[in-house]
Amino acid sequence: MERAREAQEHEGERDGAGRRSATAAFALELLVHGVGGTTPEEMLGDPRTVRITGDWTAAVYRRADDADAERRPEDYRGRPVPEAYVWCNLTSGNSARALWLLLLPFMVANLAHWMRPTTTGRPRTVRLYGLIVRLLGLTLTVLLVAAACEVALDLGAWQCAGTRACAARHPWLGFLSPAGADAGWWSLPGRRLALAALVPMALTLLLWYLSHRTWSAYESQQPVSRTAEPGEEEHRTALGRPGFWYGRRLVARLRAAHTAAGLLTVAAALGSAAARHDRRHGAVALQSLGWLVASALLAGAVAVVWVVCSRGRTEQRLDQDLDRRLVRWLPWGALAVLLLTMVYAGWSRPGWRSAGRLPGDTTFGALALVQGALVVALGIVAHVLHRARPDTRTAMRGQAGPAVAMLACALGGVMSGGVAQRVADWLDGTGQAMAGPPVVLTWQASTIPPLLLVLLVLSGWLAWRTRLLRRAETGAVERDHPGEPGDPARTLRIASTRALAALTDRAPLVIGLMSAVTLVLGAVALVGAFAANDTPEGAARGTGPLVRGAAETAQGLGSWLIGVGFLLFVTWGRRAYKDASARRTIGILWDVGTFWPRAAHPFAPPCYAERAVPDLTWRMAAWTGTTGGRLVLSGHSQGSVLAAAAAWQLGPSARKRVALLTYGSPLERLYGRWFPAYFGPASLSSLHREVDCWRNLFRRTDPIGGPIGLPGDCGPQVDRPPLRDPLAYGRTKEHPLPAPILGHSDYQADPAFDEERRRLLARLRSGLPGPRPADAPAGPEPAEPDSGPGKARPGPGT
């Protein structure tokens, strides 16, 4: 019996070894689509697909005929098994994604965190850079909640409900008005403010809920847990660290801090109004209670700043600690302070009447001053880091992060000012009954016309440069097609497409100039608001007609523009909520802006890469570990960025079994320049050394994709020479109809795609382990694999 059992075990082992050797003989082709998404049917070129693994949010699909490929590896000799990873529902799924438009300033601030210049050493300076961005993100949360307080407490409960004419125009405010016929318990100023405080409190709790919901769905996806191989730690890049794509602990800490900051902001707005009255006319008991509230607010603010300053995360391992006491008790403590402040403000104070504005000028002015100081400090730190290791390819010489942070503050200011201005206009139709929003918001709105004027001049200069480049490209197009009948109109279209695609490389100039102008105009608005203590129109009284006319025009046009911008913003969000195509467009925006983890702001839209990168890594590690086979990782556009990030997460031995094919890739053109610390030349070179082979395809007509610029191991360069676009200049036998200008799409339509794909698959099958020297000539064209029945070819949707 024992001998028979041993014989069966040996026979099973031989069968298993045979199956493993057979499966190792074929390859897997894993396709990853780009921005905008697609369907698995389009990616695989087959209407019959099945989900292999994953859920309705993100999953891996195969053709129905290939679902059991591992059980019959002999059927796939000479051809790969195609798979498609579809992740578009991570960013453009249900209609709730439209609400993410409200989080746009937070997303932009989070991008600034990852735009740190690359450097060697200087760990304290690197930590200081991250600290400044986190503090800047905290000010954005306070700004948003302060804007809600301005609308609900100041404009609604204090000014409109406290004014007879305004309250008469809005009957729903009658129970809050002391002059109304049904004036009652809620008509006292403090109680009106306490009731109105529920609006910004609800907004803060909504942000907490959205962040917690997405945190449970995105940050909770654990990356592959594995043991580091010998020597791996010495050469590991930032994106290859085990805990890089697992920000669960950091987001939980920041969410608790920002939620507490929002609640404390509401308490400060509510308590300051009551304390201002008590300092003049209040009883001793109320003054004492006011000091208690102020002390609690100060203690809460110190706790929030401490939590934000202490990063509380490590990327060197999977950090499972959630700091549950801190995450739980900090928001609850802030809520208790807010409830105490409501009781304090709602206390009866005879003789207290609403007049003028609440102290909003001080609040918004202080926020603008702090944000400006933080942006300047961030610029100094970024300069120090960039100077330690200068790189000519880095966008704006390392100042991309501060410039983007300035734009985040500007977006927050426009949104808060737009809300306040539109609500004030709606409540006070005559423009005479209410004092209106804070003066500093009016000054900030008045800076929009000169900012748009600068943008208009810059657009004119770019148009002129594009025209010159189009003229140069016209000659290049003619030289690319010698001996063919000339077609001036088609030549002009091709040259125009190339010239417009080159505008992407001008983005650093545009963003840098607009950020600098925004910083200067913001400083002018701040000085003007506090020096004149009046609106621009009021400050210009008594001056010459030219200055007075310019001030009146800037104030009126700025107020109109900020109102129109806010209405367009709301309209776009409403349309996206109802229209799937508009929601898909917003999803494309998030595809680009939410690749990075939420390291600076917890209320930013969630990072889809914290789900997509572990998905891809798990799939590649599981497949190579189970079958012993090799695979081609094929990524288009943003999919190439996900592919590179997933390849970094693999162990060195598994990474050597992967060949990388990228096309329309922004890895160097966008990510390498704007995020040099993570996709700079050193990081891309390490990826190139560690994968089996890497080939990259790009076009001159592509505004997103570009060359990688590295020497190759399966050819002289990683980059294939620029693909022809269009494939045919005129009508030919192969293209009897005019060939389209493809730009960023349909790379699979070019014969070069199949050629490079065949080359990579042939290299994987041959088992060539080592890289070829950079100066070695390319080998002969490998024979095309046997197509066999039902050979898969990727569809045009990727």
From TrEMBL:
Residues 1-20, 708-798 are annotated as: Disordered. It comes from Streptomyces caeni. This is Lipase family protein. The keyword Thylakoid does not apply. Residues 1-18 have a biased composition (Basic and acidic residues). The keyword Lipoprotein does not apply. Keywords: Membrane, Transmembrane, Transmembrane helix. The chain crosses the membrane at residues 128-148, 193-210, 256-277, 289-309, 329-347, 367-388, 400-420, 440-464, 509-533, 553-573. Residues 770-782 have a biased composition (Pro residues).
